[in-house]
Amino acid sequence: MLENKQSHGRGRAITRLALTGVLLIFLGCNVSHHLRPVSADDPPTRDVVGRLVDPQGELVHGAQLKVYINGGEEPTAVEESQAGGTFVIDLPDDPIEMLQVEIERPHFQTISWTAGPEELSVLRQGGTVRLPDITMERRITLGFWIATLTFASVLILIALERLHNTMAALLGAFFMLGVSLVGRPLNPDLFIFDFEQALQYVDFDVIFLVMGMMIVVGILETTGIFQWMAYQAYRLSRGRAWLLVIILMLLTAVASAMLDNVTTMLLMVPITLEIALAMGINPLSLILPAVLASNIGGISTLIGTPTNILIGSYAGIGFTDFLINLTPGVLMALAALTVYVLVVYRKEYRATTGAVSPALMERLREDGRITRPKTLARAGTIFILMLLLFVFGEQIHLVPAVTAMLGAVFMLLVVEPDINEMMKVVDWTTLMFFIALFMVIGAIQEVGLISFIAAGMKQVVGDNLDLALLVIVWAGAPMSGLIDNIPFTAAMLPVVGFLTRTIPGASNKVLFYGLSVGAAMGGNSTLIGASANMVTAGITERAGYPISYMRFLKIGLPATIITVAMGTIWLLIRF
Fold first, then answer.
1. Considering only Cβ atoms within 10 Å of each terminal Cβ, which end of the chain, N or C, has fewer?
2. Taking the mean position of all CA atoms in its chain, how far away is CA 339?
3. 276 neighbors 282 (Cβ within 8 angstroms)
4. Which residues contact 364 (CB under 8 A, 6 or more apart)?
5. How confident is the model at residue 329 (pLDDT cuts 50, 70, 90)?
């Protein structure tokens, strides 16, 4: 027994040491990312520098630049454009009478640049030739059509629920990688991208932010705090169904803003089911309004919805930015949604007496009890500090992903749960869905489909910012209902980024906020529109209260129109 205790103690010590190491690594990575190295100025060399862009102004990296000097048939040097689209061609000291650079990249037309007399004169004197931005035109290849059809197939599989979302995304990603690997030797036009390029499209800020929040929520969940809040909502309502649904909607919206809407519904639905059954009311009359409020409430913060996490990481929008710019619109939408719910379910709410037998009340009280108060005190303190870092950490360049992982590691150190059990709370299926989805979206971005969509939207909206906002919000809402709002948002980010750069007045990122409103609120229109909807439907079906597609549509579609209208009005007022 003594040996077992010593072994357990050594295990805890090793775990603490490992977690401390992870903590220091994240701190070091975050700080070093923002340090600016200081070095001596390089001596002048004769070279050619420039930058490659596509027709939408996106930087083109990975292009191959072949340098031919004095009419030689073989390239003297081969360079590659870097992540910022820039390139530097260092030239040898040999006399240069003629200089030609051939630039090629898959899915782009090959172009060449030839140095004129002025450039050659500068180079002979040992100077540097700085070229204006070189625009590389897109080229439609077989790979373009394969990537486009694969992307459409993934969306259809997700919408029809023929495959699990993660399986559909993985199938799409690795089909395109397989075509690229096997097809390229047969026909270069079959190439889409290689594995290294696919990984470059994965936004690991999103992955680590989601992972960290999963661990944090997993620890908080063990304390019973969420069930306690649901029970307190019933006590405050005193059995009045109309007041209970208002409290539950508000509670769910706030919890979704602080955590995320999927996790919130996972925790709130079971206790809500018990309360509804104890009151003798149809559980769906409480649960459906709660899930609608969850999708809306999560818009207020960076971490509230997966779509906001994607938007925030891509556009550099922080926790405070979402909070300030979208919360008033969210409150307007929630107020309108509350009125709508009370009208739609007025008969159900009036029919219930709210009386609960002493035995059922005791059971509700027991299920709504805080089971680990000491753990709650420790974990709750760290969670509050995390929220403060989300708000103020941006001033010291502490990115949200690092804040989430710091909070997760600190909780694991302080609470000392079973590390193996805590790793099980991480939804690896969801993380793999994000990784595969980033690859799929990266493929259609690589072949140029996103660029063509962006150019088409630019022709429609021109330089009219208000029209662009309306198109993004009101086209985004139904599209998010037809397919899951996560892949829709991921696909739209480069398009919105292009419009933000090219439309006058859009630099305040209003179009990204419009995408947030359209995608998240639009997810309320159908059962498959948002992950929280499908998670909730799964729980209620197991409890014997299935939510059909048409039933959700009947309630969700009018709610979507009302709330999107409120969100649009706020965006037009705010920006």
1. N
2. 31
3. yes
4. 231, 234, 271, 274, 275, 278, 356
5. very high
50 pairs with which residues across the strands? 87
CA torsion sign for 441, 447, 453, 458 is positive
Contact 545, 286 (CB under 8 A): no
Pairing state between β 111-114 and 64-69: unpaired
Do residues 283 and 272 touch, judged by C-beta distance below 8 A?
A: yes
Alpha carbon distance 567, 453 (integer Å): 25
From CA 54, how far away is CA 361, in angstroms rounded? 65
Picking from 150, 192, 156, the residue whose alpha carbon sits closest to that of residue 171 is 150
Instruction: Return the top range by mean pLDDT from 22-31, 36-45, 123-132.
Output: 123-132
In eight-state DSSP terms, residue 91 is: P
**What mean pLDDT do residues 202-227 have?**
82
**Per-residue tokens: 553:** 């549509």
Residue (of 112, 115, 92) closest to 102 by Cα position: 112
The number of C-alpha atoms within 13 Å of 126 and in the hemisphere containing its C-beta is 4
Per residue, the 3-state secondary structure of 137-202, as one string, reads CECCCHHHHHHHHHHHHHHHHHHHCCCCHHHHHHHHHHHHHHHHHHHCCCCHHHCCCCHHHHHHCC
Q: Please check whether residue 440 is in contact with residue 169, taking contact to mean a CB–CB distance below 8 angstroms.
A: yes
Bridge partners of 52, per DSSP, are: 134
Question: What's the Cα-to-Cα distance from 302 to each of 260, 403, 409, 473, 479, rounded to whole Å?
Answer: 9, 12, 20, 18, 22
Q: Considering only CA atoms, which of 345, 337, 343 is closest in space to residue 557? A: 337
- SS3 assignment, position 463: coil
For residue 236 the two structure tokens come to: 């405050």
Q: What is the pLDDT of residue 466?
A: 93
Query: Hey, what are 330's tokens?
Result: 């969210």
Q: Which amino acid is at 360?
A: L
Backbone phi and psi for residue 492, each to the nearest 5 degrees, phi listed first: -80, -15
Contact call for residues 311 and 268 (beta carbons, < 8 A)? no
Phi, psi of 434 (to 5 degrees): -60, -45
Query: 320 in the Ramachandran plot: left (φ > 0), alpha (ψ -120 to 50) or beta?
Result: alpha
| Distance, CA of 428 to CA of 423 (rounded, Å) | 9
Residues 392, 397, 400: CA angle, nearest 5 degrees: 70
By CB atoms closer than 10 A (0-12, 13-18, 19+), residue 117 is exposed
DSSP sequence for 429-456: HHHHHHHHHHHHHHHHHHHTHHHHHHHH
Whether domain 47-135 has CATH 3.30.930.10: the reply is no
Contact present, 326 and 512 (Cβ < 8 Å)? no
Whether the Cβ atoms of residue 524 and residue 563 lie closer than 8 Å to each other: yes
The structure tokens listed for 294 are 């969850």
Q: How many residues does the chain have?
A: 575
- The pLDDT tens digits of the residues spanning 65-124 come to 999 998 888 898 899 999 889 999 988 888 888 999 999 999 999 999 999 999 988 888
- Tally of CA atoms within 13 A in the half-sphere of 218 that contains its CB: 24
> Which residue ranges make up each domain of the chain?
47-135, 257-262+279-356+448-574
Reduced 3-state DSSP string for 540-569:
HHHCCCCCCHHHHHHHHHHHHHHHHHHHHH
